[in-house]
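Per-residue structure
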Amino acid sequence: MCQLLGMNCNVPTDICFSFTGFQARGGATDVHADGWGIAFFEGRGCRLFLDPQASSTSPLAELVRHYPIRSKNVIAHIRKATQGAVGLENTHPFMREHWGRYWVFAHNGNLSGFAPVLDGACQPVGQTDSERAFCWLLQNLRQRFGHEEPDSARLFAAIHQLTLAISRHGEFNFLLANGDWLFAHASTRLSYVVRQAPFQEAHLSDQDVTVDFSALTTADDRVAVIATLPLTDNEAWVDMPAGTLWWFAEGAPVQTLTTVAGPPPQVKN
């Protein structure tokens, strides 16, 4: 299966430290070697980098790792192909315009028999179940709300209902963002950590790299990092129970809805 990485902040922040550990999982410390991608929201714009090569050996990934792009919302993905050949058109994240802004989506899992009718307004370019699910989500949001974007609370409730429908077809861990917020669904496995004052050192699990965030931040900064597996070995990551949908804004979880019954969150030290 694939791996996901997301970041949601209250001030524009770079993701170089987290991406350094995440990059290694694409063929070095893990087997996800079928491509990678990352999207950075900047105002109403979005920078999207995609590469069908393994992230651990990708020159483009090396550029991103050393390029301190500051963003309030980031989604990254490393792929282990299940549906669709290895190729640029099947590399996550996927991006579409919707309601006059960019939306970005990445998926970890496998949806069996998911072949919805699409009305043509949003069509997949590649062959993945992931891009098909993204197009179906946007199609249903447009049908429900028309041409005017609803407030975030109504939108989160609608995404919850659509997630319930798709999840019947299999594993559906995903990250979805539009520049203002980030939604995360833990179908099977996802964790998050919130970094805020008092900031401390963090050490990567996949690389021998340590950063002292107290030297790089202000007292008002807050950053939520979401990953398939914790990226550091000395921070208190929170396991997101299987079958939960999360809304992150301004660097913190805002609301959680259940998509199946599950245990309460467990803190992982």
Remarks:
- The two ends are 25 Å apart (CA to CA).
- Residues 111 and 168 are 8 Å apart (CA to CA).
